[in-house]
């Protein structure tokens, strides 16, 4: 008989409806909580028949069944935080508000009041009942339409979001996060309003309609972080970061728009060691083959990004780069995350246009390499540093983003090689990119072989 090794976790509670399509409701909430290392419990308010195309039907559970679930969970578990989702009817909202008065843990209220189409989901009595529930909440997370229902203030920008948040504060809630997903613009701005401060969390808008369940995931992420003991502002900031990535790398499932990917942080973290090992394998092949002919004066680096990488810290590279020696090429030190600057930023910028790119290497560029690239007949792009706007060159790190945009934007076929012809004080280079490490190594060795001929 083996000795048990129990895993103690914070516990959170979701009070929401069930989504048979798995993209929203308690399914999204529990997945989000698990992704944050929190054990999720639930009290189901309603059962819906829905998929990625829409809702077919719904059935609200009897009040006594909801009360029994709430009693069972709160009597047994040490709840660290709770959140609400679809409460469906006035009676359900009133029941949750009554029970919330007994909660000794934070409560996140996502006031589901308006459908994606803009139609109101509740009768006026239900909308008024939300005011009582908000009086028991730690933070409310209305979108622009819901904030307007609650306040009669049309949310069109940060200023009106602040005004709406301040009006909702008067209902007794401790803080209000007015979400900006429904407000037009190139960037999403979520505005957190408390009695003391106003804080905006900003992210680039993702060009996708696969946002089903995004509000559920955001509220559940805040609740999970509060259950872990985080303060409100960092909990909200971390939750908005989580959602931005979950929306960008959405699940391509069903015949509709798909669903947000609640597992991105877990899968990204799990891929770190494998990514570093793949970079090391490429480096080992380069050392064995002695690719001195392709190592630039500034040194070569091999960079690998985790599947959902959004920052340099999530890219593995050779610390100190690969350099030429009398006995061949050698890495100066080992592979670690955050070791590359320029090549990593270029790869991350390229992923904005070709998200499945995960590996890159910088190589020497001269007439021989240019001829080799022509012989290999690869799709090649290039950018001229002399053409970059002055403000780009004056900002540290922005040249790589500008260069990637010149190389990858508006192309039917993405390049596998990108030429940077350099300028005064900047060595000419060619960067090779690939979706997997083996292909990157194969392409680099093919280029070296062609140069050697």
Number of helices: 15
Radius of gyration: 26 Å
Beta-strand segment tally: 18
What's the shape? elongated
The chain-level mean pLDDT equals 92
The CATH architecture of the largest domain = 3-Layer(aba) Sandwich
Supply the helix-strand structural class.
alpha/beta
Strand content: 15-25%
Largest sheet descriptor:
9 strands, mixed
The end-to-end span amounts to 65 Å
Q: What proportion of the residues is helical, as a percent range?
A: 25-40%
- Give the low-confidence spans: none
Q: Could you say what the CATH topology of the largest domain is called?
A: UDP-N-acetylmuramoyl-L-alanine:D-glutamate ligase
Strand order of the largest sheet: 3-2-1-4-5-6-7-8-9
Q: What's the CATH H-level homologous superfamily of the largest domain?
A: Ribokinase
CATH C-level class of the largest domain? Alpha Beta
Provide the domain count: 2
